[in-house]
Specification:
The chain is α/β, with parallel strands linked by helices and 323 residues long. It has helices at residues 4-10, 12-23, 41-53, 65-71, 90-101, 122-133, 153-156, 169-178, 183-192, 196-205, 207-223, 228-236, 246-267, 276-279, 289-305, 312-322, and strands at residues 30-34, 78-81, 110-114, 139-145, 160-163. The protein folds into 2 domains: 4-163, Rossmann fold, CATH 3.40.50; 206-322, Zinc Finger, Delta Prime, domain 3, CATH 1.20.272. Strand 3 (110-114), helix 6 (122-133) and strand 4 form a beta-alpha-beta unit. The longest helix is centred in the C-terminal third of the chain and has 22 residues, at 246-267. It is elongated, with a radius of gyration of 25 Å.
């Protein structure tokens, strides 16, 4: 079931704008909700649906049958189109248009939600223009997209667009720590994921905890001027195990990068630091601002190589020689 509390927390301006438009009876017949993954676009579509379908005097109440069905996306007047094999085809849009012309079994507004709308092929996009050019009373279209630039200009010109701002990393870190996730891990999750749900899935899988611990060990070894590759092998063998994906290696590089950035903040006198335990013994005479920039460049160079089929052990051996 959709949790409106997170929508209110992360996108209060959009909630306010939709609510005011509804109360003033100024809703338009077609919307584009655009923004990166995890910005609560689907939640906002559900919220607008609940506004339109709620049976109370102060919608959305969140407890009436219509609200509950809307929040579960099970209401008979809510129609959802999703990509199939990364494309939305003409027949899917034609099925939506058929619903548009059919008599509803339920009273009230009808809402059509198209997820990842930029994946409509040319035929589907042209078919959708019929809906946009001939709006029907009490029929509302909501397009959701992470790549709105791929939509036809003729579609974008006929919808009202709401941009969903990225979730604040600081806010997400706090929300995750409030749930009991260790501070440094929460900080990493806030920077390598786009939503709390995605972060919590990574916690459940367990690898992120090992990856953060490994990255901290690398920095501690660096503080003691020990061999970094040996330190990596002592704890990092799991990165060569079964079920490990390139994305896990990407996460490891992301965490190493975050640690270096915290070292840069420390050099500049920032007192609100993460990874404090492994940063307290950093040799600032060696790890100067120029040296830390060099470390970031090394990490970026080798992280780019993850895109290709490379021998991972050789990649790490070379990287730690330079790092």
């Amino acid at each position: 079931m959709t949790d409106f509390a997170k929508l209110f927390d992360y996108q209060p301006e959009i909630v306010s704008a939709l609510t005011k438009s509804f109360k003033k009876k100024r809703l338009v017949h077609a919307y584009l909700f655009e923004g990166q993954k995890g910005t609560r676009k689907t939640d906002a579509a559900v919220y607008l649906s609940a506004l339109l379908l709620c049976q109370s005097d102060n919608p959305p109440c969140g407890v009436c049958p219509n609200c509950l069905k809307a929040m579960n996306l099970s209401h008979g007047n809510i129609f959802i189109v999703e990509p199939e094999n990364d494309v939305i085809k003409k027949d899917q849009i034609e099925a939506l248009l058929h619903e548009l012309s059919s008599t509803s079994l339920f009273d009230g507004s009808r809402i059509y939600i198209i997820k990842e709308a930029h994946l409509m092929n040319a035929a589907a996009s042209n078919a959708l223009l019929k809906f946009l050019e001939e709006p029907h009373p009490q029929h509302y279209l909501i397009l959701l997209s992470t790549q709105p630039h791929l939509l036809l200009d003729t579609i974008k010109s006929r919808v009202q667009t709401f941009h969903f701002n990225p979730i604040s990393k600081k806010k997400m870190t706090k929300n995750l720590t409030d749930k009991g996730i260790e501070k440094d891990i929460a900080y990493c999750l806030a920077h390598i994921t786009s939503s709390e749900e995605e972060a919590e899935e990574l916690i459940k899988s367990g690898e992120i905890i090992d990856i953060v611990a490994l990255a901290k060990d690398i920095q501690k070894a660096k503080n003691k001027k020990q061999d970094l590759y040996l330190a990596f092998l002592n704890r990092g063998r799991f990165l060569f195990g079964e079920g490990i994906l390139v994305s896990h290696h990407q996460m490891f590089f992301d965490v190493l990068t975050l640690i270096v950035r915290e070292k840069i903040k420390s050099v500049h006198g920032d007192e609100e630091l993460f990874f404090a335990e492994c940063l307290k013994n950093v040799d600032k005479e060696i790890e100067t601002p120029d040296e830390l920039i060099r470390q970031l460049e090394v990490l970026n160079k080798y992280q780019e190589r993850l895109k290709y089929h490379v021998n991972m052990e050789l990649l790490y051996a070379s990287m730690f020689l330079e790092f």
